């Protein structure tokens, strides 16, 4: 029996390695990777003949090329400790191969000024869940939820989380119906829960701490292909007046911004798309990774003329870089940030997360 299990594991590992080699060495479009999160959206109205996103029916897994459930957030713990966290599970379907699942888990330990992360991949045949909601897992890293009430669990060497999340606003269906198109790249369903309350346990170096805070969740799926030569800067911002903002700037392979999106979600959940020309973004500082030698922006001033907003955004920890070559072959910066600024004459503070991809030495 043990020999049979050993042979099965070897065969599974060989199949998984072969799958990863196929995807990476052949530059297979649509490989599960973090910097595939926001492909360039065509500005022309090219809506496919597909139904709009419907929740909670569409919270679970779909039979499409690419899908992910993405959570980031801020946590306050006992003894005055503060943390940021990221947990994401990707699902990739290709041909008749079993689904490939990839996961990243990161903790920004702001009290220690330390960043830790881990990564996993697994390829297993999974039957579609007969129950509603989210049921995604890579080993014992799990995301479960229904109708805006989610549970996250993950552990690495020095940190672990068991968190319960509840949505404080209606979900934001991007483009009004949660359906966007990438022209020849395909289509994507995309919605966000921009403000979720969080309670649970974070284990820090063996010490369980009760924590609470706020999180942001993205769920995206569809038959779309990734753009490997470009990158983007993605902002999720939660302001003290109850409003949330999502912004991304997509860059070409020369670093030029070729597309801008800004969405403003009011304190009652009303969603408004901001014209790209109203958004001005200025990089204030840079940081160079001692691990990879990559230089990233590390401080921003964001002005949105139509909203009277002037925000200064700074990372709470300089080094929040993930080198995920074992699972996605990619390196990116994703980290907790703090916000200060004004809207018209009102002073604002806030917190958020920023993702930076496509930066090279």
From TrEMBL:
Q: Where are the transmembrane segments?
A: none
Q: Which PROSITE patterns match?
A: PROKAR_LIPOPROTEIN
Q: Keywords, A to Z? A: Signal
Where does the AttH domain start and stop, copy by copy?
A: 66-223
- InterPro entries under this entry? AttH-like_dom_sf (IPR023374), AttH_dom (IPR010791)
Claim: Amino-acid biosynthesis is one of the keywords in the record: no
Q: Would you indicate the residue range of the signal peptide?
A: 1-27
What PANTHER family does this protein's entry cite?
A: BLL1000 PROTEIN, HYDROLASE
What is the official name of this protein in its record? Carotenoid 1,2-hydratase
């Amino acid at each position: 029996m043990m020999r049979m299990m050993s042979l099965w594991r070897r065969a599974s590992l060989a199949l998984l390695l072969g799958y990863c080699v196929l995807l990476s060495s052949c530059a297979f479009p649509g490989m599960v990777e973090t910097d595939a999160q926001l492909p360039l959206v065509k500005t022309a109205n090219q809506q496919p003949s597909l139904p709009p996103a419907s929740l909670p029916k569409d919270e679970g897994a779909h039979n499409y090329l690419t899908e992910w459930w993405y959570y980031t957030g801020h946590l306050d713990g006992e003894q005055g400790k503060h943390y940021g966290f990221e947990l994401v599970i990707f699902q990739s379907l290709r041909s008749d191969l079993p689904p490939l699942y990839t996961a990243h888990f990161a903790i920004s330990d702001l009290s220690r000024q330390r960043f830790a992360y881990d990564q996993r991949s697994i390829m297993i045949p999974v039957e579609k869940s007969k129950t509603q909601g989210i049921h995604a897992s890579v080993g014992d890293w799990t995301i479960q939820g229904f109708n805006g009430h989610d549970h996250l669990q993950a552990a690495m060497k020095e940190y672990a989380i068991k968190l319960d999340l509840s949505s404080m606003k209606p979900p934001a269906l991007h483009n009004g119906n949660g359906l966007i198109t990438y022209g020849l790249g395909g289509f994507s369903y995309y919605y966000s829960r921009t403000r979720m309350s969080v309670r649970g346990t974070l284990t820090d170096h063996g010490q369980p701490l009760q924590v609470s805070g706020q999180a942001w969740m993205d769920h995206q799926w569809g038959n779309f292909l990734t753009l490997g030569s470009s990158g983007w800067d993605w902002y999720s911002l939660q302001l003290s007046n109850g409003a949330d903002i999502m912004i991304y700037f997509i860059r070409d392979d020369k670093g030029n911004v070729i597309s801008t999106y800004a969405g403003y979600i009011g304190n009652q959940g009303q969603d408004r798309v901001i014209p790209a020309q109203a958004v001005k973004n200025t990089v204030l500082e840079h940081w160079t990774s001692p691990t990879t030698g990559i230089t990233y922006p590390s401080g921003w001033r964001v002005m949105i003329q139509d909203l009277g907003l002037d925000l200064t955004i700074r990372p709470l920890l300089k080094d929040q870089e993930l080198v995920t070559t074992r699972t996605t072959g990619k390196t990116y910066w994703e980290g907790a940030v703090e916000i200060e600024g004004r809207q018209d004459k009102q002073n604002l503070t806030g917190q958020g997360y920023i993702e930076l991809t496509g930066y090279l030495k």
